[in-house]
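TonB-dependent receptor
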Amino acid sequence: MLKSKPSVLSLAIAAGMSVMFMPCSALAADEVTPEQQPMTAEVSTTDQTDTAKTELNREVLSDNDEPIERISVKGYSRSLIDSLNSKRYSDTVSEQLSADDLGALPDVSMADALTRLPGISAVRTGGQAAEINIRGMSGGFVFSTLNGREQVSTSGSRSIEFDQYPSELISSAAVYKSPKASLIEGGVAGTVELQTISPLSTDKDHSFVVNVRGMHNDRASEVYGAEEYGSRLSFSYQGKFLEDTLGLAVGYARLDQPSVATQFIGLAYNDSKELDGLANDVNGPIDNPSYEYISEGFEIQHLGGVETRNGYMGAIEWAPVDNFVLKGDAFMSRFDSEAFARGYRVKLGGRNASVANPTFDGNSVIGGTFNRTSKSYTRVEIVNDDNQDFDEVNSYGINADWQVTEKLNVNVDVSLSSAKSDFRNGLLWSNVAEDANAETPIFDENVSISYLLNGLDLPDVGFNQAQAFSDIDRVMVSKYGIYPFENEDEVKAYRLDFKYDLATDVISSIEFGVRYSDRTYSNDRSVFEYGNDGAFSKSEPPLKLTQDMATVVDWQGDFSYFPSYLAIDLDSALNAWFPNGVPQPVQTWGNAGGVIDPKGYTTNYSWTMLQSGEVYEEVLAAYVMANIDTEIAGIPVTGNFGLRMVDTDQSATMLQNVEGDVDLGAQNITDSIGIINQNYVQTVQGVTYTDYLPSINLNFKVADDSQIRVAAAKVMSRPPINRLAGDISASVSDDGEINGSSTNNPFLMPFYADQYDLSFEQYFDEGAFVAAIFYKNIDSFIDTVAITNFDFKGNGFNVPEYIIDEISGEQIATTNGTYTTAVNNAEGGYIRGLELAYTQVFASLPDAWSGLGFNASYSYTESEVQSMTNLGGDTTTQDLPGLSNNVVSATLFYSYEGFETRVSARYRDEFVSEQVAINEQVVNFDAETVIDYQASYQVTDGLGVLFQVNNLTDEPTKSYFGTENKTGTLQYFGREFYLGFTYAM
């Protein structure tokens, strides 16, 4: 009689459904001990082409006449069983995706793949997941490594952009929610560890895989000039040579992806005006309000372009003897984006505009008719922006692992991570003339703008100039500007680790080590402008358009009721405007105001110096950790406890305004466009600090199929690297008052938190259930505050004791005013939450129905941490960035005889993040549900075909300022369709 093993079979099938939503640890399958291995199915060798197919092959063996069932699991299920094993036998609270998982998911990047895990969500930019949020905390609190090495970013902060990492080149991904002493510090929210392939760890001697996919965006046809079609191509090779002592792996992945969106952008409420009388308030009448807040305006735009990413991966591994392995690896990513933004930008005109029939939300104006006056800037600009972003990511490392004796292991690692971003924001403004054919065109100042916001729906708008927006006899190009922003970030790191095995009943081994890193970050701003966006310049006259330069563009779909406008060919317009190349303006500043301007710019662009600079960071860390393997009251207990010491030395270059006083150290400082400024003295300032970070992780195996995890730790996240860059400025007013500001601060300290985790895991015949609760108590956050009566001189500012009144010639003593800067004094608080994950398969159903499965995860997170915002006019509280109270993921899965299909949905309710298309403007985002569908069929052992739809319901991104009535961004991306094949040999 055949003896079946239902628990093993059910685990194998359950694993095939659990990867996206089952918490899984970061340990690989080959780390499972022989004693643990019988708990899982035996896994056969496979490659990525098998990921579309799940096979359970039963083989009856005979040992002393007793039948044994062996289950051979291939492809998708194999990798998921690896993840399930890792979860059960890990020593931390963590999640994992393994190689075949990522190969099975045609996600554009690792950001998409990671959002499949419990407690993890993403912020979509341009329709694609980019920033990762973990347990209700934004990307700034997430630390990331590649092959165990710290990664720098092109984002200009510490948060890496996961869309830089092609899923085809990453063999595994882990998310550590509870730390241990051996992990590099830096993640209050968690640590994301990405891994590339280790060539000698593969089962096959040689394998070669090719993936080809075409894609189509169904909203691109609504955007004039947008690309509808794109493609993805990747190949990889893995091989072992010289009797498995030399391994080689190389990979390449290319993405050509249309970038498409249609959007409405509401701008912040940065002005106010007194509006007497009654008004139609959406929340009831307001009687005689003293002041109402007015938005700067809004934008309505078509976005289009192409994103091109080339990813490269290589690794070579050499094991000349059994106890020594030397590995070198490299990862490179080149992500280029060239995109246009066309439409119009509406400027309401501020407090000097004439306002009729206003509609209010609280004390903020959300509608009315704005008319231009002689003092207001009310206007509609036709915009044709050209944005280019060229990003580079490089990661190199060499690792030597030496098993010195049976008990002692030594590991040495040397690495370099670098990133560079070159973003060029090119803007072409056009304005309406009374008659563009006139010898001296006159700016049309008869401007009337009517609008009414409709919350999370598109607004009602009306323009008295609407017919002129698409008329080349009225529209003239009036200004051109280029605003480059370059970031460079590099970290060199050296690491030495030891592990010594002990023969005790409590401590199985001791680990200790040291790590040193040296990081340099720099940013560089520059600018060129010609013309005027608010009027017509006489010295820099506007350009008359011709038919070959412009095309009339109509809005379609939801936006079809907006007025048409002119899409202007940038190259044609600039060649006509500047036939001999872009000229330099003739008017010069000379030496006025301490500025020497050899290139003759008409504006003092010294802000480019203040927004440029460098940050230096040196870190020395050491740790000791004990690994536990014992029993308490008959219950097996594993885990670790340890301490990590971290010494940090951070500093930044700073410019201090000394009004050109040579005695105070004034220097000639030249920016990237040649302007020499004599007002500033450049210094380097910073701070050093030492931290001690204890941690403990315990795993209690309360039964053969269930266990309880307990973890506690002190964790830290350093401030965003760009917030350490010095940009101090101070000035003295005519009455002698000193005021200053600094968006950043090189003296900022890290975020600190005490965190606690408790989780329960239950494995049963046809599924698994995991429940976890967590609590973080965060000390403080960065906030920008205004410090009144600030002691400028006492804090190192070089300020005069008096100024001379220009009229009377009398001395006026200086007095301390207000200093606005970033500090670590925002009140902290708790973040706590619950995570649930459930997997159910139906292996007991007959025949084809046995391939049916379902899994889901749910997380609830809450926090008492709030901040104040006035972007919507009225000051109101705002939740912690990245926090959604409820996050839900679910997948329905089916496979049968080579065919596999699944539909997955990810929901997160409202959260706070930076507004789409507006940097550093933190707003509220509405809840969203993103649904994806995939189907595949394995034609032969080597050939598989795939069809997929991303964003099946064309879910937009919607944001608002404080209340839903004050519209932020409404951005529609379209659906993405993929069709392709995979071939392996």
